[in-house]
Amino acid sequence: MPRSVNSVASRARRKRLLAMTKGQFGRRKNVWTVAKNSLEKGLQYAYRDRRVKKRNFRNLWIARINAGVRPYGLSYSVFMGGIHKKNISLNRKVLADLAMNNPEAFKAVVDFVKS
């Protein structure tokens, strides 16, 4: 009896993988072995960088807060220490947004921390 191969499922699996590599450059998008390796590596980077993105945004928020409090004679660490002492429950994302887009509200927070 001849060996039975489920070519329908195999082809569907290949099509699904090649669809996921659509838009890549060169042989990465249409050669099975190259596309498979490229996709696996891309998914590894995607998993890793979902975590790295959180670090990058936190660094950005800290830089913006620091730039926002420097004109008032404070450093970032002194300001954040004061925020915690006064029990102000604004996170870094909100503080950075205030520093950039609403300077008068940010000044009110800084004045409250300084008092």
Summarize the structure.
The protein is mostly helical and 115 residues long. It has one domain (25-114): c-terminal domain of poly(a) binding protein, CATH 1.10.1900.20.
Structure write-up:
The chain has 115 residues and is mostly helical. It has a single domain (25-114), classed as c-terminal domain of poly(a) binding protein (Orthogonal Bundle), CATH 1.10.1900. It has five helices and no strands. It has helices at residues 7-20, 32-69, 76-85, 92-101, 103-114. Helix 2 packs across helix 4 (92-101). It starts with 6 loop residues before the first helix and ends with a helix. The mean pLDDT is 95.
Question: What key phrases describe this protein's structure?
Answer:
115 residues, c-terminal domain of poly(a) binding protein, mainly alpha
Secondary structure: helix percent = over 70%
From the alpha carbons, calculate the radius of gyration and give it in angstroms.
Answer: 26 Å
Largest sheet: none
H-E string = HHHHH
- Tell me the total number of β-strands: 0
The shape is rod-shaped
Hey, roughly how much beta strand do the residues contain?
under 5%
* CATH level 3 topology: c-terminal domain of poly(a) binding protein
CATH architecture: Orthogonal Bundle
- Spatial separation of the terminal alpha carbons: 89 Å
Low-confidence stretches: none
Task: Furnish the topology, listing elements before pairings.
Elements: H1 7-20, H2 32-69, H3 76-85, H4 92-101, H5 103-114
